[in-house]
Here is the input.
Amino acid sequence: MNEVIQGLKLMPIDYYIAFCSILFVIGVIGVLIKRNALVIFMSVELMLNSINLLIAAFSVYWNSASGQILVIFVMVVAAAEVAVGLSILVVTYQNTQSIDMNLLKRLKE
Amino acid sequence: MEKYIFFGLSGLAIFSAIMVLVSNKPIHNLLYLILCFMAIAGHYLLLNAQFLAVVHIIVYAGAIMVLFLFTLMMLNLNLKLELNKSLMARIVAFVSGLLLLVTLVIILNGLVIPTPKTATTQIGMTRDLGQVLFSEYMVPFEAASILFLSAMVGAVMMVNKNK
Amino acid sequence: MKTLTALVPLLPFISFLVIGLFFKRIPKLLTSVLACGTVLISFIFSIILFVDLKNGGTATNVTLFDWLPSANANIGFSLVVDQLSSLMLLVVTGVGFLIHVYSIGYMHDDEGFNRFFSYLNLFVFSMLILVMGSNYLMMFIGWEGVGLCSYLLIGFWFKNQDYNNAAKKAFIMNRIGDLGFLLGMFMLYIQFKSLDFNTIFSQTGQFQTGDTFITIATLLLFVGAIGKSAQIPLFTWLPDAMAGPTPVSALIHAATMVTAGIYMVARSHALYILAPTTLLIISLIGIATAIVAATIAIYQNDIKKVLAYSTVSQLGYMFIGLGAGAFTGAMFHLTTHAFFKALLFLAAGSVIHALGGEQDIRKMGGLKKKIPITWLVFLMGTIAISGIPPFSGFFSKDEILLHVYVQNKIIWALGILGSMMTAFYMFRLLFLTFFGSFRGTEDQKHHLHESPAVMTVPLIILAILSVIGGFINIPAVFGGASSLNNFLSPVFGTTQTSAPEVSHGTELGLMAIAVVGALALIAFAWARFVKANRIPAGEETQRYGLENILYHKYYIDEIYNLLIEKPILFLSSLLHKIDVFVIDRIVNEFGSVTVWLGARARLVQTGNIGFYLVAMVLSIVAFLVFGLMI
Here is the structure.
């Protein structure tokens, strides 16, 4: 396996940029069109991952380890965010029996 | 060879990402998302970032997705939720997303990026990454652990606040 | 001498500060000692200064510090003690001290005892600054200070709204006069580039007699005097000012403050002597005030009101004297008037005290036996003011009238008439109060008592002064030396119209006319109020003709109300409407436009998260596009 991977050449960075952009925009659209808070969370994860991949790609591209460390930290933060976010969701559900984002309108009042 | 793998993984990732949005059952959304993450992990491997690939699978597929699943099951939300916005809103959202894509592409297209020096690198290896992480990034690493702790405490406190 | 000079006004001020700052804590005894003691020490210092001047000393000029240093004129915080201000110092501190002592007894049961004495000391301080100031600005400080104290003390019993209104009336009327005083000061400053008395008076030589500028400036200053000394047309505040405690009426509204106008004119004699027009106007206003106030006094039934109108009338005499150039005569009358009018007021206060607050002479009568000391001193004061020799009022009034006779026979005749009326209404007051039978309630009758010694002793001292006060300036016709004339001559010097060129025979004749006239009217008053025992009619009685007009004080308050107050109120309400409907409207419209815009803009905040997110994405797109375009 290692040899196989070693044998592969690096794809041009433009491809990664394009791919990650598409993935990111899919995530954005997901956040915009969904009302289900759970799916919105998923879309956010999608966006985070697209960015992570792009950072990793650049890190390899520039042959610098810092980029990959940054990816790890982003994952850390993402994990923490999901933990807190989901617990908020649970509390919201307990209170309103729903995870509809539009319910948050009530915060206005 | 690497081209096929790249496009195959990319296609899989984009397809599954779109399916996350299209399908209406939360459990399906989740499974597609895992699929998408698997494809991204493949991408990490392709970049020869083995440590990241492994961590990615462990954290996302292993931990985060389990959290999502847990929430789903606990709240018994695996119904076909009709939580979609009106068609108009969806079109607006879609159009604005596309606009963002277009602008991003235009901007990034304008960037001039020099060609890489080496075809492949060894920086993604666990050993190399570990050395950097525990020397240069020691303090942020420790800070991250505190962040985790506080997130954990916060999550527990929030759900248990009634008691 | 300089230290003494500075200490004279400083001591009452310190006392004012101490009492004023700690009036809730310090006991009445300490207040009494402090307030009276400081004024007494000031009085002693004044005597020392006076004796020094009397023995040929020169005027003391003390500049405590440079107050308003400027390129053109250096206005210093400076005091001067010359013959004129020394005389005033004696009057202010001497009479002031006696009234302070009297007040201890009069105000003893008042809860505002300490407050009263702090005001009183502040008044003495202001009055001393007024008389000692060596420039017009210093005088103005004192001028305003006494006005403030007058306001505070008239409204001393501020729980009564009528008293507050009286205080406001006094303050506002004074303000009109003060405006004139200020304008006069400005004119002098423009011309002389200084407000210092010496500087100004030493430069008067460059002006012709009758100079327009001087005439206008002196007239404006005189407007200030009109306000302060309650002359026509600004005299109506003084009778209302009787709302204050009686010692206040005696000190401020009879003996000292109201004479500030006379002092000011006398001080500025160097200017006034150059303006015959102004002097004529002063004479006319003075005689008009003297007559009008005297006629009003005839029909008043409030013991203090009668005395108030009599004060106005006597002030009118002083102005006649000033108008005739008899500056010494005016100052003489000021001094004797301070004695006998303070005496009369304090005695009236003693009567009121005995009757438990009753001021209406229709409810008095027969007090002669009950309060003999008060009766005696009141009699002294009444004789003095009526101008019966050899009491003090006779000499001072006569000196003025003699000067007037030389200048203008008509004014002299009117003056004699007024002086006869004075005798009449004063004796009417005396007879109604002390003769006949008691007309008050049984309750009051039982409580009739002579005032304590702390009140009667000052009365007695003042009575003695009223009797002998005239001897400080006995005219040559009686073999006197005209001591006051000589004493004041360094100040008035050559500007003083020298003793009138009349033969002793004429002089004696004029005196005889005045005295006989006064005696005749005293006899008339006796016949009417003691023999016939006529009591003035009650409030509701229908009055006719002259009596009605006089009883209602010529309807002057009503006329002012109609001519000044109504138009001003109308204008004010008009302006108020403009304010409300135009200016406020514009301001409010700005507010409502903002509110309207806010209400529209608020709709953007729907609370819909989806909308926010779309807006966010679109904004990011917009930023990016913007960045691209740049």
Observations:
- The two ends of chain B are 58 Å apart (CA to CA).
